Amino acid sequence: MNRLMSQQPAVCGVGQWPILSAGLVAFVMFCVPVWVQAQVTKVEELHFPPLPELVIPEPERVVLDNGLVVLLMEDHELPLVGVSAMIRTGSRLEPKGKVGLASLTGTVLRTGGTKTMSGDALDEYLEGKAAAIETHIGDSSGTASMGSLTEDFPDVLKIFGDVLRFPVFDPEKLKIAQNQVMAGISRQNDDPDEITSREFKKLIYGKESPYTWEPTYASVGSITREDVMRWHATYFHPNRIILGVSGDFEREKTLALIQSIFGDWPKGPEVSDAQVGIQANVPAGVFYVEKNDMTQAKIAMGHLGIRRDDPDYYSLVIVNQILSGSFGARLFYNIRSKQGLAYDVHGGVGLQWDYPGMAILSMSTKTETTAKGIDALIAEARNMVAEPPTDEEVASAKASILNSFVFSVDSPTKVLGKYLTYEYYGYPSTWLREFRQGIEKVTTAEVRMAAHKHLRPKEFAILVVGPRVGTKPALARYEKIQELDIRIPEPSAGM
DSSP secondary-structure letter at 13? Predict the structure, then answer.
């Protein structure tokens, strides 16, 4: 406080602080800035005005005759244009013997060049224009993006269209991509966090679910250029693509440009993708992965979570905030600050768009405190019911969520990205506008009910990753431990 006051200009002409008479003290206190007089001593004494009305722009939605959905959002602040595309594909659609096919397609779609420009020539062209084009295929979607200066936008968009429509999948670039994936396979057991995430997902979704499949030397080695081309031909059609454009562009010219580049792309067949399976019952119990080059233990526990269209969605957003949304949240305060068991501790109920997320509590702790760490995480899950969220916790969580919400919509690009996601997964366009109201309406009773329903410690699958010697005392108290085999199958001869 003294340091802050010393940086303030003299107040009411008083530049020095000698011994003061009672009258002068009163005079000085009258002249001290209001912010000094209004100091509070407790957080509870802080009061904030209501949040102002937040106006979120909406993109214009246009659908071409071939089914291509276009979302437009102008922003003339900077001479830049960005384009993002979401393609209805994903590794969850791969056949089991070809795991890695979707990812390879997403990589070589960009690096393998087009009918008019090789991958290397494309790199050089974009570098000269300070532009970028990127492509990727993840679990549940494919993505492609481009960015350029406004003056280069028409030319770069034409190339972007060629990348989506006319890739050649250069065999040499495919081989490079395959080698990179295989190098990753050889290192997949190096990182304890990666092991924990991968093996926990298998426990929750089941080994037969495509959400848990990992590429192997055999699966990646079996993928041919014909496989990649077939994948592209199956899933890359205009009626499976949503195109978002944001930045410094003119609507009419841009729509005409998009029509000229994508309008003659024939519409693909109307097909429904196969449903992706998830095991019905998560096996409760304790599971162990031996990794002896660690000095800590990784702990993860939980069960299936929910989709975002679940009626408890807003309540669980608040539950997650109370659990680990800040340094004052329960997990951080009770496990990290009070007990000193972990530096890194997280937890919450996972919320995915079109399949259930994972409810998970996780932490890293010293091997000798593995047992205490397991007990502490279970206790926090139980306490969300035994010591349910208070009105104060709920109010604080709401304030934190709502105050930070503005940063998720503080640019047209961020807003457009959200609308692309809603369009892709079939959520209403009002989803973003309704978020604040949805959070504000949640009651403490609803938060408590959601925590009781979606955090079920008795059903937890508990995973421990760590050195056998250090974690042995913690695991010895359980009658049954299921050890997981994470050995990497050797590549076959000739690979």
Answer: T
Question: For 36, how many CA atoms within 13 A lie in the half-sphere containing its CB?
Answer: 14
Cα separations in angstroms, 50 against 121, 127, 399, 402, 432: 55, 47, 10, 11, 20
Give the model's confidence band at 17: pLDDT under 50 very low, under 70 low, under 90 confident, else very high: very low
- Mean pLDDT score across all residues of the chain: 91
Instruction: Based on the fold, state whether residues 26 and 135 are members of the same structural domain.
Output: no
Phi, psi at residue 117, to the nearest 5°?
Answer: -155, 125
Residue pair 334/381 in contact (Cβ under 8 Å)? The answer is no
The yes-or-no verdict on residue 13 having pLDDT over 90 is no
Given a contact cutoff of 8 angstroms between Cβ atoms, the answer to whether 279 and 206 are in contact is yes
Same domain, 233 and 374: no
pLDDT at position 341: 94
Whole-angstrom CA distances from 183 to 97, 211, 291 are: 19, 21, 20
Q: Which amino acid is at 325?
A: G
Question: Tens of pLDDT along 186-245?
Answer: 999 999 999 999 999 999 999 999 999 999 999 999 999 999 999 999 999 999 999 999
Total domains, the chain: 3
Confirm whether 36 is domain-assigned: yes
Closest CA to 466 of 349, 394, 368: 368
Q: Are residues 142 and 173 in the same domain?
A: yes
Q: Do 303 and 282 meet the contact criterion of CB atoms below 8 Å apart?
A: yes
The confidence band for 382, taking pLDDT boundaries of 50, 70 and 90, is very high
Give the whole-angstrom CA distance, residue 412 versus residue 432: 13
3-state SS, residue 374: helix
Distance of CA 71 to the CA centre of its chain: 22
Q: Are residues 299 and 367 in the same domain?
A: yes
Whether pTM > 0.70 for this model: the answer is yes
**Domain CATH for 296:** 3.30.830.10
**DSSP letter string over 228-294?**
HHHHHHHH--GGGEEEEEEES--HHHHHHHHHHHHTTSPPPP--PPPPPP--SSPPPEEEEEE-TT-
